[in-house]
Design goal:
The chain is α+β, with helices and mostly antiparallel strands. The protein is built from four helices and four strands; from the N terminus they run E-E-E-E-H-H-H-H. The strands form two sheets. The chain has a two-stranded antiparallel ribbon. A two-stranded antiparallel ribbon has the order 3-4.
Length: 91
């Protein structure tokens, strides 16, 4: 995956686990101190919104057979550890 910004780009690689149920990073996008400026640009310019139409469509498909769940983003420190830098580079 590649993050493109006006001040540079970050590249990382994910791989699907052996059972095909989850993704994990094999290369984190932030590799050096200078990459943190690019990451700051990404984080400051990322906006999230709840997609109510998608939620209602999913709710209609599921009906009374189940419940619709949604995803909470990780906190900033968790994201550094798990997504952007990895444990070794964060600590």
């Amino acid at each position: 995956m590649t993050y493109e910004t006006p001040i540079g780009q970050l590249r990382g690689k994910k791989r699907l686990g052996e059972w095909g149920t989850f993704w994990h990073y094999v290369e984190h996008p932030v590799k050096s101190i200078s990459d943190l400026r690019i990451l700051e640009c990404i984080v400051k310019n990322t906006k999230a919104r709840f997609d109510y139409e998608f939620y209602k469509e999913a709710e209609n498909k599921v009906g009374r057979r189940g419940i619709i769940r949604f995803y909470w983003e990780r906190g900033p420190f968790q994201r550094l550890l798990l997504e952007y830098m990895g444990v070794e580079n964060t600590v």
